[in-house]
């Protein structure tokens, strides 16, 4: 087993969560009589480049089927984040009617719709047919393809290179990160800018966010590692921003290495912060397993105690991280009878592995549970405002990560 970036042998285990089905493989009624594919969920740290990564790349078709059910536009806070980003980047890079913006993993057009509203030409690249179709219905050009060096070279040859190439939460999700970054370079016009956002490994470890580990999430990234991978493919990081999204993310701004734009002080500051956090030392990468087991034990204790004392519990948000948590903890419908989710694409299905039914939010009012376990803990404030009505019957919100909290 070799590192997917530097090809050093992988030996150091970052976390081992056993085996689980792909986190977006929601089940239909008829699937309940069939076996489910489980894959090992074990993550390693490369001793050389410190790229934290899943042990082997699973087959694409098992992870991203055509009925893949994640539609970005169903999260209000994510839409607001996209709108703010577009306003900022359009001003900062002076984008206009002569520019071209390319988004990789453009999903249902949740972000490019704001680019289009400003009259800036744009194109999305999206491998998932169902989301690409929704984007096209909004009038956004969406090419159904896996992005990489070959795709970008072909696109640049037939069309043109882009002034802005962006990818939000895709860098960590691509199996071949070297090829992907080479694609960013090939797609980028001279003088252009790449921006990528990814959950920050520093926050993952410091905040015990082990439930953000799932199969589709191939890499766990620091600025040190991203800078190294970019440099090897001819891209230079010139700015970095800290974002609150996904429990703490980085947005990296990069350009062709030959470009003259000077690096902002933010880059050195973040590299120093990572070093100060211990990210250059092996010990940093060794404590998460124990923390994950503590979170699992606390959650199970809470659920069992609630059941024994006649309290009812439901969950909110059928997010990928919820599936990691529930499957690692071995939670089944006897402890958690249902989860509600705003996405109609998930309602009527069952969570992979745990087989907990996904229902519409109205079910909360009908059944008035004593506790609502919020699985996307990163959206706790947004969800808490939205679920204010549960206080009418004394309902309380619960989050499990980074520590059990009953609100
Ligand atoms: Zn490596």
Q: Could you describe the 3D structure shown?
A:
It is a single chain. The chain is an alpha/beta fold. It has 13 helices and 17 strands. The protein has helices spanning 60-63, 76-92, 112-117, 129-137, 149-158, 177-187, 201-206, 223-232, 265-276, 288-308, 320-329, 362-367, 380-386, and strands at residues 12-20, 39-45, 52-54, 101-104, 122-125, 142-143, 162-168, 188-199, 219-220, 235-243, 249-256, 313-316, 339-340, 358-359, 371-374, 396-399, 405-406. The strands form three sheets. The protein has a seven-stranded mixed sheet. Strand 12 (313-316), helix 11 and strand 13 form a beta-alpha-beta unit. Helix 5 (149-158) packs parallel to helix 6 (177-187). The model has no long low-confidence stretch (mean pLDDT 94). Bound molecules: zinc ion (ZN). Zinc ion binds at residues 3, 5-6, 8, 46, 48-49, 51.
Low-confidence stretches: none
Beta content comes to: 15-25%
Helix/strand class? alpha/beta
Please tell me the overall pLDDT: 94
Which outline best applies? globular
Descriptive terms for the model:
single chain, 407 residues, alpha/beta, seven-stranded mixed sheet, binds zinc ion
Brief rundown of the structure:
With 407 residues, the protein is an alpha/beta fold. The protein has 13 helices and 17 strands. Helix content is 32%, strand content 21%.
Topology of this structure?
Elements: E1 12-20, E2 39-45, E3 52-54, H1 60-63, H2 76-92, E4 101-104, H3 112-117, E5 122-125, H4 129-137, E6 142-143, H5 149-158, E7 162-168, H6 177-187, E8 188-199, H7 201-206, E9 219-220, H8 223-232, E10 235-243, E11 249-256, H9 265-276, H10 288-308, E12 313-316, H11 320-329, E13 339-340, E14 358-359, H12 362-367, E15 371-374, H13 380-386, E16 396-399, E17 405-406
Parallel strand pairs: 4-5, 4-7, 5-6, 7-8, 12-13, 12-15, 13-14, 15-16
Antiparallel strand pairs: 1-2, 2-3, 3-9, 8-11, 10-11, 16-17
This protein binds zinc ion.
